[in-house]
Design a protein that fits this description.
By secondary structure, this protein is an alpha+beta fold. The chain has two domains: 66 residues, Orthogonal Bundle (434 Repressor (Amino-terminal Domain)); 180 residues, PAS domain (Beta-Lactamase). Helices cover 46% and strands 12% of the residues. The chain is built from twelve helices and five strands. Helix 2 crosses helix 3 and helix 9 packs antiparallel against helix 10.
C-alpha cells in the first residue's frame, strides 16, 4: 500500500483529514474502528487524517463505504482528495433514470386512495398522487397548490396545515427530530442546512433533543380535522435501495395509511367524490 510524501512543514492540513475526523466523530468511531472496517492499517489512516499521506481514490471510496456516507458525501470526499466525482446527480425527468421514475409513479398510483408524496433532500414535494393532491387542496385551497410545497414547512408553519392538525405538538416534535437527524448527517450539504435553519425560525419550534446516534422512528401519526372531516393518518418514509445516482438516493417516498377504519372510509369516500 503506497503513500505519497508528506506536505511541506507549515502546509495547510489536507481537507480529507478534516472530513474523515468529523464523520468519524459523528459516528462515534475510533481510528481503529474505521481502519478495520475499511480494511487499511491504523497507521495509514492516521497519516491520511493528519495530511502526512494522500489517499488513493480506491482508499477514499473504502473509507466512505466504511463510514456509511451518502453518495453526495462520497463525492465530496473524493473532490476533497483531488479526484472527480463518482456518482451522477440527474434530474428526475432524465432518461437515464426513467425506469426508477416509472417504479415510483406505479408505487404512488397503487397507494390510492391513500395519500403519498415524493420529496427531495430538502423535503420539497416533487410528486404527489391524486389522493395527496386532493387532501392538500381541500385543506390549503387551490391557489396555494399552484405554489411550491415543502413537506416539513406544510406541517410546521402556522399558516399552512398546522391549524388542521389536532396533535400538532407531538407531530412537530417528531418531524423536527427527523429533520435534525437528516441535517446533522449531511453537514456539507449547504442547501439542506439552509432549509434546516429556516425551519428553526418558525414560531413555536424548539430544537429537538435526542440521542445523535439514534434514528427517528419509522412511523409518525397525524390527526387532521377540517369541519366535519376527521382523518387519522400513519406516515412512513421509504427510500430506494442501493441507488447509484445522488438524486435517487435522496428521494423520500412519504406514504400515509389510514389510522383507523373511519379514516379509511373517509379517504375512500373523498376519492369516490373526485372520480
Amino acid at each position: 500500500m503506497s503513500t505519497h510524501s508528506a506536505p511541506a512543514r507549515g502546509a495547510r492540513p489536507h481537507p480529507v483529514g478534516d472530513l474523515l475526523r468529523d464523520w468519524r466523530g459523528r459516528r462515534a468511531m475510533s481510528q481503529a474502528d474505521l481502519a478495520f472496517e475499511a480494511g487499511i492499517s491504523i497507521k495509514h489512516l492516521s497519516f491520511v487524517e493528519t495530511g502526512k499521506a494522500i489517499a488513493s481514490r480506491d482508499i477514499l471510496l473504502q473509507l466512505a463505504a466504511a463510514l456509511g456516507l451518502s453518495l453526495r458525501d462520497r463525492n465530496a470526499l473524493l473532490e476533497a482528495g483531488g479526484f472527480a466525482r463518482q456518482y451522477g446527480e440527474r434530474d428526475l425527468a432524465a432518461p437515464e433514470i426513467a425506469d426508477a421514475r416509472r417504479a415510483i409513479d406505479l408505487l404512488l398510483r397503487r397507494h390510492e386512495p391513500f395519500p403519498a408524496i415524493v420529496t427531495d433532500r430538502q423535503w420539497n414535494v416533487i410528486v404527489a398522487n391524486r389522493a395527496a393532491t386532493r387532501l392538500m387542496t381541500m385543506l390549503l385551497g387551490p391557489v396555494r397548490m399552484q405554489q411550491p410545497l415543502n413537506h416539513m414547512r406544510m406541517f410546521l408553519a402556522p399558516d399552512e396545515l398546522r391549524p388542521f392538525v389536532e396533535n400538532w405538538p407531538s407531530l412537530a416534535a417528531a418531524l423536527m427530530a427527523r429533520a435534525r437527524h437528516e441535517a446533522m448527517a449531511a453537514p456539507l450539504d449547504l442547501a439542506l442546512q439552509s432549509t434546516w435553519r429556516e425551519l428553526m425560525t418558525l414560531p413555536d419550534i424548539a430544537t429537538p433533543k435526542f440521542n445523535e446516534s439514534a434514528a427517528p422512528g419509522p412511523l409518525c401519526e397525524v390527526r387532521l380535522r377540517n369541519g366535519d372531516v376527521t382523518l387519522g393518518l400513519i406516515g412512513t418514509v421509504l427510500t430506494l435501495g442501493t441507488p447509484q445516482d445522488v438524486t435517487l438516493q435522496e428521494l423520500r417516498v412519504e406514504m400515509f395509511m389510514p389510522a383507523d377504519a373511519a379514516s379509511e372510509a373517509a379517504l375512500t369516500s373523498l376519492a369516490a367524490q373526485d372520480a
